[in-house]
Amino acid sequence: MLIISLTIIASLFYVLATSHVLTRLFHQQGPSQKVTVILSTVAILAHMLLLVNSVFRSDGQDLSIVNVALLTCWVIVVSVTAVSLKFPATLLLPVVYGFAALLTIASLFIPHHILLQSLSIEIGLIAHISLSLLAYCVLIIATLYGVQFYFIDKRLKRKDLAIVHSHLPPLMVVERQLYQLLNLGTVILTFALLTGFVFLDGMFAKEFIHKTVLSLVAWVIFIAVALGHIKKGWRGKPVVITIMVAAFILTLAYFGSRFVQEVVLNKF
């Protein structure tokens, strides 16, 4: 009952925060930062309590894909919210809040195995998991910045006066932040893969090879885009699409097989 209540509270306030930002999206003054912070803070705290009660149980830790997805989503929401306090992120907020609302509600209905485990304290494993989660969150945020860049650029090319007088950030600022996040995320992903190869024995084992291969493919694409931008000045729509493809591949690597095993196969 507690989990259901926390889920409803988190989802409700995520929806309220999303609605507030969307209704003021193209207003010159933008959404009220105070209202946005209050609504999102309530949602984030409820989301955090939901995670604590869902993951940490009396008989172990529930590390199912649903809870891992909720944790990843929470980190992204907190990060984007924190960034929005200093830099305009008007387009990003409704995306992350809206997705968080959908995910928290869906977590009540998605069938999944309860994986109860006792976490072994191995520095190498903890480093690999932490770096992998951090890299994924940073690269997903970079992808969102890419989508924001594409949206603003497209509206500017159409000479849309609403975008010119809106609260949305300048195009060059968004682009600069996009590549900063891309470079940072790629570096962290590099270290995540290195710690995996150094400290884990089964990176190419049958049950993990798809994850390793997909992660390496995404890493190569991210590296290529980052170096292409630095060395040859790659930018614009093709780069944004490439980043989105790489992020999708990385998502498949992190969540694809576990979703099939825990949700699809369990359902049938």
Summarize the structure.
The protein has 268 residues and is an all-alpha fold. The chain is 76% helix and 3% strand.
Keywords:
Cytochrome c biogenesis protein CcsA, mainly alpha, 268 residues
Structure description:
With 268 residues, the protein is mainly alpha-helical. Helix content is 76%, strand content 3%. It is built from 9 helices and 3 strands; from the N terminus they run H-H-E-E-H-H-E-H-H-H-H-H. It has helices spanning 2-23, 33-55, 65-84, 92-106, 123-157, 161-164, 171-199, 209-232, 237-267; strands at residues 56-57, 60-62, 116-117. Strands 1-2-3 form a 3-stranded antiparallel β-sheet. Strand 1 and strand 2 (60-62) form a beta hairpin. Helix 1 (2-23) packs antiparallel against helix 4 and helix 5 (123-157) packs across helix 9. It comes from Pseudoalteromonas undina. This is Cytochrome c biogenesis protein CcsA.
